[in-house]
């Protein structure tokens, strides 16, 4: 590492190791509530799935064929990603004859997509 990088890295850590035991005792048990939440972000961290989620936030409902054309993939690829989103409870589907339509599971997913997009525009 260059000297400049070392100096910069040292500014973002404490110069001495200490902690507030009261804060640690209060917050540490609460951390367990986030177990499994990372899977939602893992599902949305894939560029294709994020595009699909965003498309579903624009249109309330899309057919698998529409999704495939929107993202420029085969229906098999679109279906694979939609199935993963559905299994993660981020999307839901309904069948109408030979067609399958997908939508976001609820407003929380829509909000996650919207907030992520807003944050990325701010950066």
TrEMBL record:
Pfam families: HTH_5. One of its GO terms (biological process) is response to cadmium ion. GO terms for molecular function: DNA binding; DNA-binding transcription factor activity. Transmembrane segments: none annotated. Residues 29-123 form the HTH arsR-type domain. Keywords: Cadmium resistance, DNA-binding, Transcription, Transcription regulation. It comes from the Bacteria. This is ArsR family transcriptional regulator. It comes from Pontibacillus yanchengensis Y32. The lineage of its organism: Bacteria, Bacillati, Bacillota, Bacilli, Bacillales.
């Amino acid at each position: 590492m260059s000297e400049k990088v070392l100096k910069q890295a040292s500014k973002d850590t404490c110069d001495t190791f200490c902690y507030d035991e009261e804060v640690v005792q209060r917050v540490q048990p609460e951390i367990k509530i986030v177990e499994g939440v990372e899977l939602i972000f893992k599902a949305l961290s894939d560029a294709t799935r994020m595009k699909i989620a965003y498309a579903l936030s624009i249109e309330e409902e899309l057919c698998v064929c529409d999704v495939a054309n929107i993202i420029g993939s085969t229906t098999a690829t679109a279906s694979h990603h939609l199935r993963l989103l559905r299994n993660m409870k981020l999307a839901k589907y309904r069948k109408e004859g030979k067609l399958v339509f997908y939508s976001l599971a609820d407003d929380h997913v829509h909000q996650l997509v919207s907030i992520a997009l807003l944050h990325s525009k701010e950066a």
